[in-house]
Amino acid sequence: MSSQQQKQPFLKKISKGLTVGSVITGSTFFHGPPVLALGLTKLFKKSKKVDETNIQITNSWLSVNNWLIDHILPETQWDISVDDALDLNMQGRYLMTCNHQSWVDTTVNQYFGLTRMPLTRFFTKWELIFIPFVGQAFKILGFPMMKRHSKAQIKKNPDLKHKDMAEARKACEQLLSQPFTLLNYLEGTRFTPEKHQQQHSPFTNLLKPKAGGLALALNILGDQIDALVDMTIVYPDGAPGYGEFWLGEVPRIAVNLRKIEIPTWVLGGDYEEDAEYRAKFQKWVDELWQDKDQLITTMKQKYQH
Known about the structure:
Distance between the termini: 29 Å
Oligomer: single chain
Protein name: Acyltransferase
InterPro entries: Plipid/glycerol_acylTrfase (IPR002123)
Domain Phospholipid/glycerol acyltransferase: 94-236
Keywords: Acyltransferase, Transferase
Structural class: alpha/beta
Radius of gyration: 21 Å
GO molecular function, one term: acyltransferase activity
């Protein structure tokens, strides 16, 4: 292969990176200021119209990203399957669980959900409010922002635990004024072989699930949601980095969505204070995770030929 032939893929990659970077940056500067400006008006008066407008602007920003995926990254093949029992719509209220391997996971979620589900939000730390633009956008768009105290702080002042729960309840209840998708990565961190080994995880493809966040959301929102949705993401060629994705270096992405039936006993339990309920809830989540682990294995096997 000549040096000129070797340069072509490199130059193509540089060109694609510059194109994607320029479009996303330009789109962010175009869409971001109106969201922040409208958000400031909420300091004086809450307005459903302002909230709806901000979501429309955010969805416009996401649509630019999706256009890039469809037209600038045609190398990536998508295999998306949705359970027939799952009837999604833009006016629904959904809790969603998902496995977590890469920062690309959130982009995958947004790519799928833009025209099928309400804007996806997730729990964030209150401290993010101090990050310029990003933190304020999370707050304006209704992401539940949590003020969580450490175990040492709670041990010193047990009342802080109840304060944390009250904050969580308030943050979740604020979502009920509009359609929403509330995402929870149950593993709590991105999967890596090292973390898997350190945990001695009983699952082949997953880290151990942390049930507390889901229990909290179901306790607060459970009787008012339309479905508990489980999204499973598989990268048959290995979990990619964010840069790899936007350079078109991810050949295939497989996504499965299924509806999880919520047992009647789940709603109304006290995960924090009732040890028997907590053990039963954790067992239920572990069983869901066993099913998901097998699903991931099956999805991977599809590409092993």
